[in-house]
């Protein structure tokens, strides 16, 4: 048993009247003790449920992110014309609506904007379809690659995926606690704001509840994160809704100053208002995505253009939102997004094969 962790647990688990917030350093220490399993299972479970009831502060979230930075993996920087986009999407997946981020990723990468994704396998308590399964259906199996191999794919294609079970087992080892306590622990929030990229990036974080965004802004301010976007997206993801107003927060540097702007996007103003595309069984989902990549005009293709246009604009590759929509549609209809998928599939298959492993060793050493 960790006596140090017991003292931290006592602070957050003493009830509504006597519990205390942790300092940033204490939160980082508690997170390290849990990730490294120096705290006992009883202590870890107790902390998760107590901290969920108390609710983490921005300072605590900053400390937890500090620990993730210290112990977690990162993809190294690559040369690009724009800041890479890192998408923070709930690890427990989707259960109601079709995830559009894989299509958005291909469109952005085809336009020259690198994209870093991260996540794991099916995860409690939601057990929705995770991104990695969508990519597997598209022919890209990130689960087989080491971090070094993922880095090689990222450098070649501008798309990378940090897969928790392989690349960050310390964090993946805490996943069973989610099922045992029956609730999302604070780590589910940390994952939305974690940046597993070594250089400067544009961090996109999905959220559902407004207090989550407030925590993010506070934590980012403490950690010096100046370029980020928060999205009240579909099922907490970075996918912009089409059946309601999009609530987006944009933090950027203007004349050396960090500024935050609230943006309300009304899909109807741009001709994209519609009901959300429901989640389909995987074979049908794959067929729908393939149709989009072949230039088909479907509701899913409109969702892909709506989202990609926004992110092309915010990445700086397009001067305004309307130009973003035009470029996104062009990348689909001309087959360039489909070409990016073929390039990505080939890169993963080659690097994961015997020949690819030899090539990888040559390129690394």
TrEMBL record:
InterPro entries: Anthranilate_Pribosyl_Tfrase (IPR005940), Glycosyl_Trfase_fam3 (IPR000312), Glycosyl_Trfase_fam3_N_dom (IPR017459), Glycosyl_Trfase_fam3_N_dom_sf (IPR036320), Nuc_phospho_transferase (IPR035902). It holds the Pfam family Glycos_transf_3. It comes from the Bacteria. Residues 6-69 form the Glycosyl transferase family 3 N-terminal domain. GO terms for molecular function: anthranilate phosphoribosyltransferase activity. Residues 97-338 form the Glycosyl transferase family domain. Keywords: Amino-acid biosynthesis, Aromatic amino acid biosynthesis, Glycosyltransferase, Transferase. One of its GO terms (cellular component) is cytosol. NCBIfam families: PRK07394.1. This is Anthranilate phosphoribosyltransferase family protein. It comes from Thermocoleostomius sinensis A174.
């Amino acid at each position: 048993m960790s006596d140090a962790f017991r003292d931290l647990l006592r602070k957050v688990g003493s009830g509504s009247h006597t519990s205390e917030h942790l300092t940033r350093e204490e939160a980082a220490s508690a997170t390290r003790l849990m990730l490294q399993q120096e705290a006992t299972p009883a202590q870890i479970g107790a902390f998760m449920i107590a901290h969920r009831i108390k609710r983490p502060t921005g300072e605590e979230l900053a400390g937890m992110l500090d620990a993730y930075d210290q112990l977690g993996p990162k993809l190294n920087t690559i040369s690009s014309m724009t800041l890479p986009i890192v998408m923070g999407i709930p690890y427990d997946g989707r259960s109601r609506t079709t995830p559009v981020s894989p299509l958005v990723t291909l469109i952005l990468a085809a336009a020259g904007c690198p994209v870093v994704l991260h996540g794991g396998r099916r995860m409690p308590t939601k057990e929705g379809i995770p991104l990695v399964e969508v990519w597997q259906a598209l022919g890209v199996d990130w689960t087989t690659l080491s971090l070094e191999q993922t880095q090689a794919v990222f450098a070649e294609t501008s798309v990378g995926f940090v897969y928790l079970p392989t690349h960050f087992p310390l964090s993946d080892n805490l996943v069973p606690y989610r099922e045992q306590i029956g609730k999302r622990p604070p780590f589910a929030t940390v994952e939305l704001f974690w940046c597993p990229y070594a250089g400067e990036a544009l961090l996109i974080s999905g959220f559902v509840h407004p207090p989550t965004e407030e925590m993010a802004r506070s934590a980012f301010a403490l950690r010096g994160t100046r370029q980020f976007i928060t999205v009240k997206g579909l099922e907490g993801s970075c996918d912009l809704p089409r059946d309601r107003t999009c609530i987006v927060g944009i933090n950027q540097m203007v004349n050396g100053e960090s500024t935050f702007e609230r943006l309300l996007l009304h899909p109807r103003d741009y001709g994209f208002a519609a009901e959300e595309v429901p989640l389909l069984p995987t074979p049908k989902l794959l067929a729908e995505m393939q149709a989009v990549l072949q230039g088909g005009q479907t509701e899913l293709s409109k969702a892909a253009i709506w989202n990609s246009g926004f992110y092309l604009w915010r990445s700086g590759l397009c001067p305004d939102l309307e130009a973003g929509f035009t470029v996104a549609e062009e990348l689909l209809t001309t087959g360039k997004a489909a070409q990016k998928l073929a390039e990505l599939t080939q890169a993963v298959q080659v690097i994961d094969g015997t020949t690819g492993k030899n090539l990888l060793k040559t390129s690394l050493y």
